Amino acid sequence: MNTDHLLEIQNFSLSFDNKVVIDQINFELKKGEILGIVGESGSGKSLTSLAIMGLLPKNAKTSGKIPFRLDDRIIDLAQESNESIRGNEIGMIFQEPMTSLNPSMRCGQQVIENILQHKKQDLKLAKSKVLSLFEKVKLPDVERIYKAYPHELSGGQKQRVMIAMALASEPKLLIADEPTTALDVTVQRSILELLKELQQDLGMSIIFISHDLGVIAEICDRVVVMYQGKIVEQGPVQQIFNHPEQSYTQGLIACRP
Ligand code: ADP
Ligand code: MG
Question: How far, in Å, is the centroid of ligand 1 from the Cα of 47?
């Protein structure tokens, strides 16, 4: 594994009942980069991220390797089901924050529980950590948000709470699966800016998944284009966006609104 790679996906395949849904894919994530995965619905993007997170359904059959660099050793995420490694080193945010937030628990409390799950610490210290995380993700009036229930927040604010939660363990890798798809365009843009800033400030690597190549082009360094479980092409995002080699990618660009 190349020393400047944080993660590699090597000959990874996944099937359900002999139906292949990911077919021999290969890509790498460099330290500190934002890598995009783009493709229409059903192309295998979410399953790829769930494989990295170790959250695949039990009936998924996989082959291949997912080496991940953890300080001075390399672990194969395709083999090991070490939850603490994933929970601490890899954070994930999803399209719909409501499905991941508990509607009957105050936002601050949810992030606190998440922090305490990863690391035993003083409650007061944990609370101040939550407030500083809320500031880091640029939530307004953090004391109010701390006490608010999820339904009292806007969609963009809920997504920021989710990002704060994912950052609580200071992960090396953040996987964002369609994090802006459910948001309107201006909110979408501010979340993209936030992710980019976080990547620059914290030096973490991000895998950013979207069906929209335009969104990918705004924040990613490189992009992997997937179609029906295969990688169609990959490369620097401007190159793919301006000079796509494959007709599938050309179609993705042409059908943008
Ligand atoms: P994407 O995120 O790109 O929209 P997914 O990774 O969610 O695509 O799904 C890829 C393919 O795998 C789809 O055809 C989907 O129907 C299929 N699939 C996903 N989850 C399951 C499952 N639990 N059982 C069977 N097929 C599944
Ligand atoms: Mg998906």
Answer: 6
Longest pairwise C-alpha distance within the chain:
56
The predicted-structure confidence for 98-120, as pLDDT tens digits, reads as follows 567 899 999 999 999 988 887 78
Rounded to whole angstroms, how far apart are CA atoms 152 and 33?
A: 34
pLDDT 10s digits, 138-191: 999 999 999 999 999 999 999 999 999 999 888 999 999 999 888 888 889 999
Q: Is 21 in the pocket of ligand 1 (CB under 6 A)?
A: yes
What's the one-letter identity of residue 251? G
Check residue 179 and report its DSSP letter: T
Residue 71, sorted as left (phi over 0), alpha (psi -120 to 50) or beta, turns out to be left
Distance CA 83, CA 166 (A): 15
Report the distance separating Cα 165 and Cα 111, nearest Å: 5
Q: Six-digit token pair at 138?
A: 């640029």
ipTM: 0.98
User: Which structure tokens are listed for 4?
Assistant: 């400047």
